[in-house]
Design goal:
The protein has 294 residues and is an alpha/beta fold. It is built from eleven helices and 14 strands. It folds into three domains: 80 residues, Arc Repressor Mutant, subunit A (Orthogonal Bundle), CATH 1.10.10.10; 101 residues, Periplasmic binding protein-like II (D-Maltodextrin-Binding Protein, domain 2); 97 residues, 3-Layer(aba) Sandwich (D-Maltodextrin-Binding Protein, domain 2).
């Protein structure tokens, strides 16, 4: 059976429509329909229910498509294996990470990798934790950097380092000279925090709630760079990983007592997946760079 027919079937299942599937694949609708009909005839099974306005996948179709997806993933890994160049004179690697790591980890990692392997293309993406896990499982990403995931049978997790949160203040903030802060003192200050869709914000909120402290959140931002700038130029406090403020002039970290629970940063990869030479090389760089944050 041609791989093209498998791709056609999966596309129709995803779009629920022959016309939209054909447009997405840049083929004619009759050609697509004919390929799927021939597949059903060979298998003596109806894979798609065409009786309604929307094409629906039958039970037999669902069972078959699950296997077809896995087969295509493995074939794509095989294609990449054939084209893998051991001397790293060409190729590419895909890396995903959650937003806080793009603020302090991606720069050193990519710089170190490019210094050693300038011919390799690095495609880096900022994603949520759930999106990273799904992308790795779907073989859309080679590696991911995120916090510890709940058990996932399809993903291997390698501990990198422990990340600690600190109160961040500008050098001119009235509290900047303190050596530490009691968490209860935050009730007297005003905070600028990441928006609630960040996993770091969820971690902060849980910590403050457990400490029975409800500070005034004056400003929320959905980017770390904007948050850093408003704190650096004003009198608001924030809570961020200590590595971020340590790299920005005009900011200082203030430890909290009791401290927020630390989080384990993990390197993620699909279990049993083929790893290209470029992926293995990037993994080695990440492991080495992680040593500086331990």
């Amino acid at each position: 059976m041609e791989l093209r027919a498998l791709k056609y079937l999966i596309a129709v299942a995803e779009h629920g429509n022959f016309t939209r599937a054909a447009e997405a694949l840049h083929v004619s609708q009759p050609a697509l329909s004919q390929q799927i009909l021939q597949m059903e005839e060979r298998m003596d099974a109806v894979l798609l229910d065409r009786s309604g306005r929307t094409v629906r996948v039958t039970d037999a179709g669902q069972a078959y498509i699950a296997h077809a997806r896995r087969a295509l993933f493995e074939l794509e890994s095989g294609r990449r294996a054939i084209h893998d160049v051991r001397d790293l004179s060409r190729g590419g690697v895909r890396l995903a990470m959650t937003p806080t790591f793009t603020a302090y980890l991606i720069g050193p990692v990519v710089a170190a990798f490019r210094a050693r392997f300038p011919a390799i293309t690095v495609k880096a993406f900022e994603m949520s934790m759930d999106t990273i896990a799904a992308a790795i499982q779907a073989d859309e990403m080679d590696l991911g950097i995120a916090f510890e995931l709940a058990r996932c049978a399809d993903i291997d997790s390698v501990p990198l380092f422990t990340e600690n949160l600190r109160v961040v203040a500008s050098d001119h903030h009235p509290w900047a000279r303190r050596t530490s802060l009691d968490v209860r003192s935050l009730a007297d200050g005003e905070l600028a925090l990441l928006s609630k869709n960040f996993v770091t914000r969820v971690h902060i909120d849980n910590y403050l709630q457990a400490s029975q402290v409800a500070p005034k959140v004056a400003v929320e931002f959905n980017t770390i760079s904007a948050l850093v700038e408003i704190v650096r130029h004003g009198n608001l406090l924030t809570i961020l990983p200590e590595a971020i403020a340590g790299q920005v002039a005009g900011l200082r970290n203030l430890p909290l007592a009791p401290p927020p629970p630390p989080r384990t940063v993990m390197l993620l990869r699909r279990k049993g997946a083929y790893q290209s030479a470029a992926t293995r090389a990037l993994e080695d760089i990440i492991l080495r760079e992680a040593e500086r944050w331990k």
